[in-house]
Amino acid sequence: MPVLILIAFLVIAYLDATHLWQKKSWRELAVMGVVWCLGLALSLALALNLPVPSPAQILARVFGPVTEWLTRLIG
Amino acid sequence: MREEGYISPRQAAVLLWFAVLPTAILFLPSLLALRARHDAWLAVIGATLAAAVVALIVYLLALRFPHYTLFQYCELILGPVAGKMVAMVFVLAFFLLDAVVIREFSEFMVTAVMPETPALFFSITIVAVAVYAARNGLEVLARCTDFILPLMVTFIAIVLLFAMPEMMPRNLLPILENGFRPVLGGILVAWSFLGQVVILAAYGAFVNPPRALKASLTSGLLGIAFFLTLVTMGTIFVFGCCEAARQTFAAYALARVVSLGQFFERIEVLFLAIWVGGVFIKITLNLYVVALGLATVTGLKEYRALVASLGALSVAVSHLLYRNVAEIRHDLLMVEPGWTLAWQLLLPLFLLFAAWVRGKRRTGT
């Protein structure tokens, strides 16, 4: 699985980054690189079963009480 | 950053339908039956009125900043630093929404249709197509809807028409049995879907002329309310509120009960095909808006290079989000209303208020 993920991300990098490199658009390349690295790191972490906190849990911790309060208030 | 090209007001309205309806049709009827009982359809209408407030805010902002996207006028209103931060909140919110939609799609396919296939397969294939479509820009996506919309409308009509023998209008009575409070609770749940009309603030800049945005917002909202009310009423008619609340995917179950004279059966496959088309538009639109927003915030000249990486990241995030479909339902009931109220209503309202106080506008460009 990690090998497949690596191949998929390398294909994305090859298709997008080579074009940007030739055009010398470094800013685009930097932003794309950050997103690409985030995606690769997250995918590998998930494939290797590392504990990653879910954004849904973070949202639930903040907005769960808000929603509960609203529901009690009007519903 | 803004792209070349324009879409017509009609296409903007249709895109708005696709920005809300696909997941709402699938998840909302049963959640509403859980909260509002027989009065689920009243909750849809109430939530539409609430979404009309968002539409009004979006329209007023669009009049102040014609041909500017949401992410651009964030900076114009609040200055470069605070504006970029608020725009980034919108980008993250749209990104998270995209990931949730991808997860809802793959979870539905695994739960209801193909339980043996890994969920990852569904999300990767639909995102691959969405990346391809989003790279081609908004005009192409708008023309995609011209093809999918007639199919979707026809099919919703066919399902509702042929489910009629099973329908019992008595299920709708008594209206307002427990007063208005359950309806208000239902509005809160339905709101988190209908509030997504805020996405028009992001792509409304490409509608020409900007004043026509009023027509797109009105017809968009009316269409959404019409179809959603019909489908919700249909599920209540057929299943009654208790059974509808137990079904995870009530609209899909509605397509399954259609059976005419032992030969016209199992049309849920057709429902599936059209629904996948609709979700594809929704995911692509969100992906496009995220890429456009990120390109605007970081000051790029082009968003196209970001789309594939963002798509890959959103697949990973979508698999991180929830453990199973029960968690999605719990989130839609207990977390999403508060979160969507914050970024789809309060944040645009704050932007409009700030623009009004600071007297910012860009007319005549």
UniProtKB/TrEMBL annotation, chain A:
- Residue ranges of the TM segments: 33-52
Which UniProt keyword terms apply here? Answer: Membrane, Transmembrane, Transmembrane helix
Keyword match Transmembrane: yes
Q: Which domain of life is it from?
A: Bacteria
Q: Please give the name of this protein.
A: Uncharacterized protein
Taxonomic classification, please?
Bacteria, Bacillati, Bacillota, Clostridia, Neomoorellales
UniProtKB/TrEMBL annotation, chain B:
- Per the UniProt entry, what is one GO biological process? spore germination
Keyword Ribonucleoprotein (UniProt): no
Segments traversing the membrane: 12-34, 40-61, 73-97, 117-135, 147-164, 184-207, 219-239, 269-291, 303-321, 341-359
Q: Which family does it belong to?
A: Belongs to the amino acid-polyamine-organocation (APC) superfamily. Spore germination protein (SGP) (TC 2.A.3.9) family.
Sorted keywords for this record are:
Germination, Membrane, Transmembrane, Transmembrane helix, Transport
Q: Where in the cell is it found?
A: Membrane
Q: What is its main location?
A: membrane
Could you tell me the membrane topology recorded for this protein? Answer: Multi-pass membrane protein
Q: What name does this protein carry?
A: Spore germination protein YndE
